[in-house]
Amino acid sequence: MEMESTDATIVGDINLLLLPEECLSHVISFTTPRDAILCSAVSRPLQSAADSDATWERFLPSDYSSILSRAVDPVHYASKKDLYFRLCDPDHPLLIDGGTMSFGLEKSSGAKCFMISARALSIIWSGEARYWKWIALPESRLCCLSCFQTDTRCEGPRLPISNNQNYSR
Q1: How far apart are CA 151 and CA 110, in angstroms?
Q2: Full domain range(s) for residue 43
Q3: What are phi and psi of 108, to 5 degrees?
Q4: DSSP letter string over 100-164?
Q5: Is residue 159 part of a domain?
Q6: CA–CA dist 25, 50 (Å, integer)
Q7: Above 90 in pLDDT, residue 164?
Q8: Is there a domain that residue 169 lies in?
Q9: Entry's Pfam families (predicted)?
């Protein structure tokens, strides 16, 4: 069987296609999700390495299992790549913590994105009808109510912030 080769797979005198898939996967995992997608278009061996769970595991946040365990509905995925793109879908964020928060990833960087429901906030005088009016918004991503305020301050829940992790701004 002849191994396919392109100029893109030759670095100096080394043919990258001769490296074991685990090595290729390890190297690709130090790039970006976009680069992994581009690598998968170069050749079949690079596609196999770029699409591997080992590669995409590195693009997921280190605490993704913990976040998935907090999901309102179970998250089904065929591969880590599939999970990554499922979490990047802005039209279907992952509802967590009983629907009081949503979680997603920023597609190009893998940065964490949290959205907090107004009901998850500790809001001064939130039970006072003269200051607040809670209105149901069925089209809201979060399964809670939205609030409108007059003039007050609020504090939010502590987010699971991790060291050495990118977050979306």
Answers
A1: 36
A2: 8-58
A3: -80, -30
A4: TEEEEE-TTT--EEEEE-GGGSEETTTT-TTTEEEE--TT-SSSS-EEEESS--EE-PPP---TT
A5: no
A6: 6
A7: no
A8: no
A9: F-box-like, PP2
